Amino acid sequence: RWQKMTARPLRTALALLFFGLFVVLEATTISCRNEEGEAVDWFTFYKLPKRQDEESRQTGLEYLYLDSTTRSWRRSKQLMNSTESVLGRTLQQLYEASASKNNNTAYLLYNDGAPTSANYSRKYGHTKGLLLWNRVQGFWLIHSVPRFPPAPEEGYDYPPTGRRHGQTGICITFKYNQYGAIDSQLLVYNPNIYSCSIPAIFHQELVHMPQLCTGSSSSKIPGRHLTALQSARGQKFLHFAKSDSFLDDIFAAWMAQHLKTHLLTETWQRKRQELPSNCSLPYHVYNVKAIKLSGRSYFSSYQDHAKWCVSQKRAKNSWTCIGDLNRSPYQAFRSGGFICTQNQHIYHAFQGLVLYYEHCN
Predict the structure, then answer these.
(1) What are the residue ranges spanned by the domains of the chain?
(2) Where is the signal peptide (predicted)?
(3) How far apart (Å, rounded) are the C-alpha atoms in residues 74 and 168?
């Protein structure tokens, strides 16, 4: 009788203890966030370009949004410079971690057009993104926005340089066991890191990021490296990373051939700096020339600083890739990469944006 009486309070106390630990763990779990601040496995955004006509009321801050809980693009009610935007909500975790000076949380911000610099650095990769993580999980945000985001102590803002052109990005939530593979990919990237904090508890498992953070890396950089990644909820990704010693167009020479699919590529088509569509290899690469929105609305690739590609319609393999590099002769000399998925919602969302593309001569 005495054992029965003491066992019940003990079980209750243990249950409360585990519940308390679960609540604390959930409260500190780092994740991509939607506009309500709720954790999502991944999201992607398409920041629309600022229209040049006077009749347009667009500010260059509107964006399309898609995440792991939805099926297609929706136009956000938020503007990109709002702290209630998807980027504002997600990056709030960075500012909280930085302010708390928590030795269990790490972050790394990189951009070849750093917010604190007047010039673009060609010494480093043509890469833009940030990572925030602890020993449970974190997220990796890959984007195309110059001068973004500000250093953590500056708080959230969206730069004027990111308004004029279209921009894309993808945020993926990863368990900590994926960060070793991400660590190797960043070595190939050779990113221009302008703000970072990687406490000592991570240094044994993550070799390259702490060295890149301090500018002391002496590791030999491979010409290119491909790795498989898996999101916290099991979505599979492939990440292509090329160094500046891989002197070729990443789309035609590597990605299309490896994925075994014809690719429609949307990258910044600056005049006299674009590569033509390429049909010289078994799998072809075609330049998208115009992006369609709802109704008759569309915009040209010349207005778009985004970097993405999708498999051609009716392709056997339906891939979508979002990343860092343009189809330009000059980008063949830069490091960077793309993260690719066969998620059908992402594929149909991006495939549906293609108005027309350039065929090979």
Answers:
(1) 29-358
(2) 1-27
(3) 14
